[in-house]
Design goal:
Elements: E1 4-12, E2 16-25, E3 28-38, E4 42-44, E5 47-49, H1 52-68, E6 73-79, E7 85-88, H2 109-114, H3 119-126, H4 135-145, H5 148-152, E8 155-158, H6 159-168, E9 173-174, H7 175-178, E10 184-185, E11 190-191, H8 193-198, E12 209-210, E13 214-218, H9 221-227, E14 233-236, H10 241-247, E15 256-261, E16 264-271, H11 278-282, E17 286-289, E18 295-302, H12 305-316, H13 323-332, H14 353-363, H15 372-398, E19 404-408, H16 415-425, E20 429-431, H17 436-448, H18 455-465, E21 469-471, H19 477-490
Parallel strand pairs: 1-6, 6-14, 9-12, 15-19, 19-20
Antiparallel strand pairs: 1-2, 2-3, 4-5, 7-8, 10-11, 13-14, 15-16, 16-18, 17-18, 20-21
Helix pairs in contact: 10-17, 12-15, 13-15, 15-16
């Protein structure tokens, strides 16, 4: 792995996108941001949609900035969140702007689908957790509406594949992003066509599924000239951002769990085979695709969204607080005064989050948080306890103990939550890297170009390149008592 190789990672998050330049030299990786831009959904003709033309323009700007950086770029890779897709007509043109998963078109559609195919059968065939915005329900909503756009569609591309197609003219379907659709069999790693046909979803629009870390094509000559970057390869990395983040977890063995921590907390383990059972379904565990033939068995837990919304509400009330300020206030508050289930429906919508926490505590006969510190401490303690519950379900599903928890992503910077999590679980917590998604994107490009052999070699590079922290558990006894209360209060 001698010499220096440069890669461009395009990472699309829920509110912003960015281009990260990754440089691999002598077995170590460095990152720097080249370009950042907003990625806000747009309401258009009654639908909330991706602004694809503008976002593609931002990709071209990023390519141009990479060219102007004065270093040769070996390849580019793209990751986004899951489930969303674009439809192409017979001429390969995008029929309309892809609908955003937060659009209301899928409200009530999941229950309608269960009237056609049972919930049990859908889980047994796909192993995916039930969320009304999953691709299968987005497409089923179009079937139910007799949407003419679906009628003329010749191909469907998930968002990373759509951007790759616009760059290269080559269509493809990468496995990790497709696995978020609830349309893939985790056993065969291909489309569950019988299920789709029962729901009336056309299967001829679907492309063969390919594994992450393959070269999709090269930049179109016109774009190569326009951006000045040349006809570089476009790599189909792990297109689902969480899959890229998990690939970058600097684990040393298989006895680990991870939390990709941000607005959401994705809590999971890696397995070789899917885990599909009544217990897994009851816990709403999902089986999504990973790298090198792995399955990511995980659960979506409401993450720092709750504290983010609290902060916004406090600002509306005239209290301008940084996240560090909020932690300082939480440190002053008494432990385990008030607890709640972060995944309760109360906390999903935006708005007055402190008020909703107060209402939940009042309803469950607990002391009502009255200060910033009391509210924030309730959030952090409740998250740590929900992580414990989830890890226990993962251990039961996998049949093996978890000895270490890795926290990657922006949430790895929250020292209080890390300490609470280590003590609640009673195992060491390794924190970092925070830029795991971009790191995984870059390293899978390196793998595609033959610079690293497999996922474990990739992880050794990550471990050697980025600082991590280790948080050891404190006294577990008070957390055990709080956990018993938490289970009783939340009805888990």
């Amino acid at each position: 792995m001698a010499g220096e190789t440069n890669f461009l990672a395009m990472d699309f998050g829920a509110s912003s996108g960015r281009a990260m330049l990754g440089t691999l030299a002598n077995g170590k990786l460095t990152l720097r941001e080249l370009h950042r831009f907003s990625n806000d959904p747009v309401e258009l003709a009654g639908r909330l949609v991706w602004d694809v033309p503008r976002l593609f323009y931002e990709i071209k700007r990023a390519l141009n900035k990479a060219a102007l950086a004065g270093v040769p770029i070996a390849s580019v890779g793209i990751d986004t969140w899951g489930v969303d897709y674009g439809l192409l007509d017979g001429q390969g043109r995008l029929i309309d702007n892809p609908v955003h998963y937060r659009d209301i078109r899928t409200e009530g559609v999941m229950q309608c689908a269960f009237g056609v195919v049972s919930k049990q059968e859908i889980y047994e065939r796909t192993g995916l957790a039930f969320m009304e915005f999953n691709t299968i329900y987005q497409l089923f909503s179009q079937v139910q509406e007799d949407d003419g756009r679906l009628g003329i569609a010749q191909k469907m591309l998930f968002m990373p594949d759509l951007f790759a197609y616009l760059l290269t003219g080559k269509m493809g379907c990468e496995y990790t992003i497709a696995s978020t659709s609830q349309m893939i069999s985790p056993y065969t790693r291909t489309w569950s066509e019988e299920l789709l046909k029962k729901l009336g979803i056309p299967t001829d629009i679907l492309l063969p599924v390919t594994q992450p870390g393959t070269v999709r094509g090269t930049l179109l000559p016109s774009l190569a000239r326009e951006t000045g970057i040349g006809e570089i390869p476009v790599v189909a990395v792990a297109g689902h951002d969480t899959a890229s983040a998990v690939a970058a977890v600097p684990a040393k063995d298989e006895d680990f769990a991870y939390i990709s921590s941000g607005t959401w907390s994705l809590v999971g383990v890696e397995t070789k085979q899917p885990v599909i059972s009544s217990g897994a379904q009851a816990a709403n565990l999902t089986n999504e695709g990973g790298v090198d033939g792995t399955i990511r068995v995980l659960k979506n837990v409401m993450g720092l969204w709750i504290i983010q919304e609290c902060r916004r509400e406090w600002e509306r009330r005239g209290q301008a607080l940084s996240f560090a300020d909020i932690v300082k206030e939480a440190e002053k508050a008494p432990a385990f005064r008030s607890l709640f289930d972060p995944d309760a429906p109360d906390f999903a919508p935006p708005g007055d989050m402190p008020g909703r926490i107060a209402d939940y505590c009042r309803r469950t006969g607990q002391p009502v948080p009255e200060t910033v510190g009391q509210t924030a401490r309730a959030v952090y303690e409740s998250l740590a306890l929900k992580y414990r519950w989830t890890v226990e379900k993962l251990e039961q599903a996998r049949g093996r103990a978890i000895r270490t928890l890795h926290i990657v992503g922006g949430g790895a910077n929250n020292g209080m939550l890390n300490e609470f999590t280590a003590s609640a679980l009673g195992i060491p917590v390794v924190t970092g890297p925070t830029e795991a998604t971009a790191i995984g994107n870059v390293m899978l490009q390196a793998k595609a170009l033959g610079l690293v052999e497999d996922i474990w070699a990739l992880r050794r590079v990550v471990a050697d390149s980025f600082d991590t922290g280790t948080v050891l558990p404190g006294d577990k006894a008070p957390w055990d008592a709080a956990y018993a209360r938490f289970i009783s209060i939340s009805g888990l």
